[in-house]
Every structure is written in C-alpha cells, then in structure tokens.
Amino acid sequence: MNTLLHSDVGLFLLRQNFDQESDWRSDNCYKFVFSVGGATNYQTNRQEMTMSQHQFLMFNPSEDHKQIAVDHSKFLVELDRQMLNELSSSIYNQPFEVQFASLVQFTNPVSQWTQFIIRHLKVLEDEPLMVKQSFLDHNLTSLSIILLNNAVSSHIPDINLSHYNVFNAPISKTLTALKDDYKSNWTLEDMAKVANLSKYQFAHVFKELIGISPYSWLQVYRLVRSQQLLKYTNLTILEIALECGFSSVNVYNRLFNMLYGKSPGHFRKIVR
Known about the structure:
By secondary structure, the protein is α+β, with helices and mostly antiparallel strands. The protein has two domains: 3-150, Sandwich (Jelly Rolls), CATH 2.60.120; 164-271, Arc Repressor Mutant, subunit A (Orthogonal Bundle), CATH 1.10.10.60. The protein has helices at 81-92, 108-123, 129-150, 164-167, 169-180, 188-195, 199-210, 214-232, 237-243, 249-260, 264-271; strands at 3-7, 10-15, 30-35, 40-44, 48-51, 56-59, 65-70, 74-79. The strands form two sheets. The protein has a five-stranded antiparallel β-sheet with strand order 1-2-8-3-6. Strands 5-4-7 form a three-stranded antiparallel β-sheet, with no helix packed on it. It is globular, with a radius of gyration of 19 Å. InterPro entries: Homeodomain-like_sf, HTH_AraC, HTH_AraC-typ_CS. Residues 172-270 form the HTH araC/xylS-type domain. One of its GO terms (molecular function) is sequence-specific DNA binding.
C-alpha cells in the first residue's frame, strides 16, 4: 500500500515501494518517522540513528537530516509547526517552541496510534479523498498530543513509564528504579540485578525495546530532569550537571548539544 495524504495540519506518507534517499533535508515542520518493520536509518549533522521495529524519531523544524536506509515500509508524518505549538501551549502553558530530542524512542501509545492508522487507511482505501483527509486531520491532532505527552522534548518534566510494564515487566521495573535513584552511579550489573537478568541479556533486551542502551537512557533521564532546573532555578550549569548525576559539566554539555543542537546555557535563554 502506497499512500500520500495532505491536510490542513500535516502530511501523511506510507510507502512500501520507493527509492532510497540520500539528500539532506530541512523542513519547516515537525517530522515523525516510524519504523514499521526492519531497520530504519537516519542521520543529522550531530549523529546517526538506527531504529528497529515500532521505534520512532522526531525531527524539529529546520533541522538538517537525511534518510540513509529503510529496510521495510516508510512511515512518515509531517506535523504543522503552528498547530503543534498551540497544542503544547494549551497543555503545558509554556510560551517557547517545542524542541524534540534527537534520539531513537519507543512508547506504546505511539505504536498503537501508528498501527491504528495503517489498519484504518486500508479500510478507507476506496473512500473519497475528502473522507480520508477528514480522518487524517483528526488523527494528526491526536498524534501531536500523544507525542507532546510521551516523547522526550524540551517541555516534559518527566518521562512517562506507565506503558512499559505491558511489554516487559523486568525492564519496566528497572526503568522505575533508575528514575527513583537517577543521581546514583549505576553500573550495568546493578541495572541487570534489578531486572533479574544477566547483564548481557539485560543490555540486549533493553536496547531492543527502548531503542538506546540502558546507560544512555539514564543519561537522557538526567537531562530531562535538568531541564526543570534550567527553567526555574538560578543554579549554574555546573551545579545543575552535578545535581542531576552527571560526572562532569562537559559530559552534560555534550549530551545536551547532541539531543537538542544547543548548549544548556542557550536552552536556558530560550525558555526563560
């Protein structure tokens, strides 16, 4: 099934037969890319990222990126910049523009939404274009709300873990433990003990489900918690880095730049 639909709030593309792209892009919209099956590989000017099945990436407006390879269907949604930020303002009451983190992510609500769309577009295949566009308008707004509430971004005060227990109870237990004690100096062996798995099995299962390594997730969570301190306190960047469990301010700065393309100091100027 090859489908391309436009609406007032975005664009939807599902394509099974396509040429691999190699050109850099920079669009004035938010871009959601979902891996339907197999590996999907993208690159930004800061890093290269590979998604497995049911994982996704978000690209911010004017963010340079390019597709390197897609093993299966290409599932892509472009979301209107103004629409998404108006929704964000109504949910979080924060005046600055949303910035999604540049990393591979998985959340069950996003996966469920995507599978729902694929099923229903098959049902609507012979319906008039107006019917399909109406369906798209409603559901792209729903996707925007799901992403604002679940994807790692500049607006969230925490990471929602409620859906992980459905997929893997040991990993969910470990994520909760990491959240509760994120400032500690965790080792892979410590994490694996919480999950009651060998550290090699734990590392494999964790990355397969979450999309990044256990330690990378912990660092991302520390960064998410740091965002609140950047917004609402006068602590220095060094104090915030150490308060959130980073080994040094240099490590904190590098991760912040990799995920958002800006330093913590620049981020603080934008959000205050």
